[in-house]
Amino acid sequence: MIRNLILDWSGTLADDLGAVVAGTNRVLEHFGRASLSREEFRAVFRLPYTDFYRDLLPGVALADLQAAYLALFPLDHPVPLLPHAEAFLRQAGSSGRRLFVCSSAPEAHVRAQARTNGVLDWFEELHCGVIDKVTHVREMLDRHGLVAAETAFVGDMRHDIDAGRAAGLTTVATATGYESVPVLLTAEPDILVRDLSHLTRLFTPPVP
C-alpha cells in the first residue's frame, strides 16, 4: 500500500515549461549567450540542472547562475497546474496519504505557484532548490519517517526515477513534462502514466 507520495513539481504538477524557458533565456542573454527555442530547450535540458548550465555557461559560478535566475525569472508568466493535477492531489490527500514536493525549482516560485493554484495546503512540506534528488530523497525518508516500501516518487524526468529507485521507492513517470516517453522509458520506471488521471485511479482506495 502506497501511503506517501513524493512529487516533482515542474512538468509533473505544474505546467511551467514556458516560464522556465523564458527565465533560462534571460539568464543566457544576461551572460551574453544566444537564447533557446522551446524545442531546443527540451532537447538539451536535464537534471541535475547544474550539469545543464555547466554545458551552456561553462565557467559561470553556480551562485551567480542562481542569483541571475531568481532575479530574471518572469514572475508574471502564468503557471497553471497540469490537467488532472488538482483532482489527483485532492483525491490522494483526502485518502489519507502524505504528500511532499521534491523539486529543483526555487522554493519561492513553487510556493507562490502552489498558493496561486490553491493546492499549497495539500503538502506536508516543500523540498525545493534540490540539486541532487538521489541524495535528497533518502534524507526525506529519514526526516519524515517514511517507509520506502510505502512511498512512491512521481516525476516527469529520468532524474526523478533514478532518485526514487535509489531510495527503494515505487517509481512513477508521467508523460506530461520535460522529457518524452522514449527518454523516460530508458530510466525503467515501475509505472508510466499518460497523465495524472490514470494515477488517480490507482490511489482511489483510502489508506487503512
What average pLDDT do the residues reach? 95
Main β-sheet description = 6 strands, parallel
Q: What's the gyration radius in Å?
A: 17 Å
Report the β-strand fraction as a percent range: 5-15%
Q: Which strand order spans the largest sheet, edge to edge or round the barrel?
A: 3-2-1-4-5-6
- Global geometry: globular
Q: Give the strand tally.
A: 6
- Compute the separation of the termini in Å: 9 Å
Give the helix level as a range of percent: 40-55%
The count of helical stretches stands at: 10
Counting copies of identical and different chains, the oligomeric state is single chain
List low-pLDDT spans: none
Features:
208 residues
Question: Could you please describe the fold and organization of this structure?
Answer:
The chain is an alpha/beta fold and 208 residues long. 45% of the residues lie in helices and 12% in strands. It is built from ten helices and six strands. Strands 3-2-1-4-5-6 form a six-stranded parallel sheet, sandwiched between helices. The longest helix has 14 residues. It is globular.
Could you provide a short overview of the structure?
This protein has ten helices and six strands, in the order E-H-H-H-H-H-E-H-E-H-E-H-E-H-E-H.
What's the layout of helices and strands?
Elements: E1 4-7, H1 17-30, H2 38-44, H3 49-56, H4 62-72, H5 85-94, E2 98-102, H6 107-116, E3 125-127, H7 133-144, E4 151-155, H8 158-166, E5 170-174, H9 181-185, E6 191-193, H10 196-202
Helix pairs in contact: 1-4, 5-10, 7-8
